[in-house]
Amino acid sequence: MTKDSIAASRDARGARALRRATVHDRLTTLQVELLVFIAETLGNPLALLVSKAHLSKAFRGAACAAQSTLKHADLREWSRTVNDAAVHAMVSKCTQLSTLNLSGCDKITDAAVVVIASGCKQLTSLHMAYCDNLTDAAVVALASGCKQLTTLDLHGCYEITDAALDALASECKQLASLNLSGCRNITDAAVAALASGCKQLTTLNLRGCDKILDAAVVALAAGCKQLTTLDLDECDELTDAAVAALASGCKQLTTLDLRRELRGCDKLTDAAVVALASGCKQLTTLHLDVCHEITDAAVAALASGCRQLATLGLRDCNKLTDAAVVALASGCKQLTTLDLAYCDNLTDAAVAALASGCKQLASLDLRGCKITDAAVVALASGCKHLTALDLSGCDKLTDAAVAALASGCKQLTSLSLRDCDKLTDTAVIALASGCKQLTTLDLFQCDEITNAAVAALASGCKQLMTLDLQGCYKLTDAAVGSLASGCKQLTTLDLAYCYNITDAAVAALASGCKQLTSLNLNRCNKITDAAVGSLASGCKQLTSLGLGHCSKITDAAVVALASECKQLATLNLYLCCKITDAAVIALASGCKQLTTLFVPYCDNLTDAAVAALASGCKQLTTLILQGCKQITDVAKVALTRSHPFLRLG
Predict the structure, then answer these.
(1) Which of 14, 512, 568, 575 has the maximal Cβ count within 10 Å?
(2) What DSSP state is assigned to residue 439?
């Protein structure tokens, strides 16, 4: 080869190398852009970029570069491990973030939020629900550093006080959505500051802020004219004056929650509802549950004034009669969701009116209402779009009512027939034939049900995920075998008080229903360790298991659970008298997510078991030790010191 040819060859190689480098540079640039696009399209860009960084050195480099351009980050899937250091590392790489979700990351402290406030100045949306170590200092830092915030979620950050809100009101003038649910230290003064400083608020959640009085709501009504969504659930001291102010000042309200589910309410009367009906014509969602003073006159006013209502909660408004529901059926034709549970003055006439007037109903709760088959037949004929129906405690219903539903309401996905004890296999077989889309069915205490009914369900309702058969004592292993074979998507199953169930049934479930997360076998006293061993091996996603009164259970069963079911959060071992400290020590070692443990009358347990729980189960919130005579007060006191929010019984 001549010198010229050697030189030409060298030049050609150089040119090819240059072209390759140019193409590589272009691909690298394109790769970053594509990575961000693909990652954001898939929903959680940070998760994709971090989890796939091991694929290649080139991908890792591109992923690192891509992180610096990310606008959105969601750390919820790592919530149990994310700490201040992790947040610091993320902020140092993701400097362009506009939205960040840290909900459930309960290990982070104020220090993490200070870093966010310093490094993410462009942040507009921040979710920190249940980050319960945070104090006012975190929010003050945010207010100072992130002045463009429009959305902030502090749900369950119970240490927050008025000082935090004062800072937000002063610095974050663009806030449009704020969630303070469970922040029980908030007072009227803080809400007044928000109303004065954050004029663009459209969504505010004050659920459970029980120090709030009328003055706070009056201030909101005067200052936040753009409010469309307001949650005042469990703000128990509010009166008609507060609601009247809202009706006068917040004409754009579409969603309002005034329910009082925990303690009930006698401070809100018809006057409040009449004011709403007059002033808030755009209301689409209103909850008045357990407002006991509400009468037909209030509901009639709503039906006349708020014709766009789609969702209405009137649970346990026990002064209402058929006249209220007839008015709704006439005036609110767009109703899709209605809760009339425990309105026990209602009769078939009310339901017939709904069926005739509210053809768009998709969800209806009639728990505890004294209706008969005639009401359900009317629903089945008139409300073809029903997907969820609760008839719990409607104990006059017979198979004829359910057969009508099965024929008329083919789109049902959720049905509760709890305590409808006149129902037989005929009703369930009709459902299995007609309602193929059922995912949730409650047959609690329908004690005439036999294996034939369950076999029909297993054959006809393949999408079932939640099934309650508690108290259906005629069932045997054959019924459970049918479910295990036909309902592969089951996640929740209640077989408590099904006395004939044996290990064979549980083994079938463990083999066929791998997605089970909750199983109740309380009072299935033929169950032995073998059954629990099968569950532990086959159902590794179990989070809740009831074995109360299963007296044959020993330590071996619990050790198997502790070894295989790492996500277990709730375990009932009531009167499992063969259990010893060894079982609880295994649980404490293997089930770090345990929150609830029932071991009443397990009288072999000693202080050693309690000590193991104290050191191993940091998330424990409920522990029932009644009748455990060897456990001393000293051990209990030590446990409550390490777990200050523990309910100990």
Answers:
(1) 568
(2) -
Other residues' Cβ atoms within 10 Å of the Cβ of residue 588: 22
Q: What is the dihedral of CA 503, 509, 515, 517, to 10 degrees?
A: -40
Residues 6+ apart with CB under 8 A from 320: 294, 295, 296, 299, 314, 340, 343, 345, 346
Q: What amino acid is encoded at 281 in this protein?
A: K
547 with 532: CB under 8 angstroms? yes
Place of tokens 């505890």: 368
Query: Cβ(282)–Cβ(247) under 8 Å?
Result: no
User: CA–CA separation, 317 vs 16, rounded Å?
Assistant: 81
Q: How crowded is residue 482: how many other Cβ atoms within 10 Å of its Cβ?
A: 21
Q: Which of 615, 557, 607, 559 is nearest to 587 (CA)?
A: 559
pTM equals 0.88
Q: Give me the pLDDT at residue 4, please.
A: 54
Residues 6 or more apart in contact with residue 610 via CB below 8 angstroms:
625, 631, 635, 636, 638, 639
Domains in the chain (CATH in brackets) are 28-70 (no CATH), 75-236 (3.80.10.10), 239-359 (3.80.10.10), 372-494 (3.80.10.10), 502-649 (3.80.10.10)
Q: How confident is the model over 621-640, as a mean pLDDT?
A: 95
**Phi first, then psi: what are they for 26, rounded to 5°?**
-65, -45
Nearest to 619 by CA among 588, 586, 581: 588
Count other C-beta atoms under 10 Å from residue 33's C-beta.
Answer: 12
Q: Do residues 373 and 405 make contact, with C-beta atoms less than 8 angstroms apart?
A: no
Contact criterion met (CB below 8 Å) for 366 and 390: yes
User: Tens digits of per-residue pLDDT, 303-357?
Assistant: 999 999 999 999 999 999 999 999 999 999 999 999 999 999 999 999 999 999 9
Kindly state the tokens that stand for 130. 């249940």
Closest CA to 638 of 604, 612, 605: 612
- Nearest-angstrom CA–CA distance, 129 and 107: 12
Cβ-contact 376, 397 below 8 angstroms: yes
3-state SS, residue 362: coil
In the chain, the N- to C-terminal Cα span, in Å, equals 94
Confidence of residue 359 (pLDDT cuts 50, 70, 90): very high
